[in-house]
Design brief:
Number of strands: 12
Distance between the termini: 20 Å
Oligomer: single chain
Shape: globular
Largest sheet: 6 strands, antiparallel
Length: 214
């Protein structure tokens, strides 16, 4: 799994840590790899709190949550990726205690100065506001779960993102902008990846629109 520079704290002497209204036990915060550590916390476009924990993932069962699952299972490695998706001006879609946010990763190929969009893939983030004592074996002590998963949605239903998607999501930090672009000019056939809130290429049929809960 790719290293992430975002960490809550490595050592804390106080009894508790308060991060944007979320209370994190000092014992959890003192261990950078603890599964219940909150890595980052922010607000969506409507002012609702969103946060992501380190989480856990079991490759054998395919079960887990948080950044561990998002990185290992779904090939998204940037918290900035999650932030752009969550910044969708529509504020996401609620179903019970879950809220689904969506953006589009668009792949553009350029040859000899001529460019065209070849792929548009929806990227989804699921915030789970359910309060649990534990979740997939991680002790939460009655706190909210946070972002349970984030993934790409394609007609193959694979739900693991191609590498160009993370490149699109990883560039600038202006999460309020309606799009951002990253490019790779290492070859004559240049590739650009753009993140937007609307698709820029034809959307394939057969995409599973179901609302996941984990």
């Amino acid at each position: 799994m790719q290293k992430r520079s975002v960490r809550l704290m490595s050592a804390i002497g106080a009894a508790t840590v308060v991060l944007a209204g979320v209370v994190v036990p000092a014992a959890a915060a003192s261990a950078a790899t603890a599964s219940n550590v909150i890595l980052d916390s922010w607000e969506d476009a409507k002012g609702r709190q969103v946060f992501v924990r380190e989480g856990t993932y079991d490759a054998t069962s395919g079960k887990g949550f948080g950044m561990q699952k998002i990185c290992v299972r779904h090939n998204l490695h940037k918290i900035s990726s999650l932030k752009f998706v969550v910044a969708n001006p529509n504020g996401g879609e609620a179903e019970g205690l879950h809220r689904k946010y969506e953006a589009w990763a668009n792949r553009q190929e350029c040859v000899n100065g001529k460019c065209k969009y070849t792929d548009s893939i929806p990227v989804r983030v699921i915030m789970n506001n359910e309060e649990r004592s534990d979740y997939y074996g991680v002790q939460l002590r009655g706190q909210k779960i946070g972002i349970s998963t984030a993934y790409c949605l394609s007609d193959s239903k694979a739900k693991d993102c191609p590498s160009w998607v993370d490149k699109a999501l990883a560039a600038p930090t202006d999460f309020g902008a309606r799009s951002r672009t990253s490019s790779d000019a290492s070859s004559t056939a240049q590739e650009r990846a753009t993140l937007t809130y609307e698709p820029l290429a034809a959307v394939p049929s057969g995409i599973d629109e179901s609302f996941p809960t984990d």
